[in-house]
Amino acid sequence: MEIDGIISAIVIGIVIGILGRLVVPGRQRIGILWTILVGIVAALIGSAVAAGFGVADTGGVDWVEWLIQIGLAAVGVAALDRSKAGR
Questions:
Q1: Which domain, by its residues, includes 50?
Q2: For residue 40, what are the contacts with CB-CB under 8 A and spacing of at least 6?
Q3: Can you say how many angstroms the Cα of residue 8 is from the centroid of all Cα atoms in its chain?
Q4: Whole-model pTM?
Q5: Alpha-carbon gap, residue 83 to 87, rounded angstroms
Q6: Can you state the angle between helices 3-23 and 32-53, rounded to 10 degrees?
Q7: What is the 3-state secondary structure of 1-40?
Q8: What's the Rg (C-alpha) of the chain?
Q9: Are 36 and 17 in contact (CB under 8 A)?
Q10: Structural domain total, the chain
Q11: What H or E segment, with its residue span, contains residue 50?
């Protein structure tokens, strides 16, 4: 992954984090900065997973990659929320 890929993953990660938070039902007890951080990590990991499956670079919109990233963000938001609830 090159620098432009990392920068775009960070920018997209902000959107992915917010979408991941919307996918998780109920109220989350984590702040927006945690949500953005989870989104960035999910975007980076999701891009690597999509590249591993060979679906990262398609002719049009990379829907499969987006779905992987949003799914990872939703799991991350839910896991972080659950860990915060235990405190």
A1: 3-85
A2: 9, 10, 13, 14, 16, 17
A3: 13
A4: 0.78
A5: 7
A6: 120
A7: CCHHHHHHHHHHHHHHHHHHHHHCCCCCCCCHHHHHHHHH
A8: 13
A9: yes
A10: 1
A11: helix 32-53
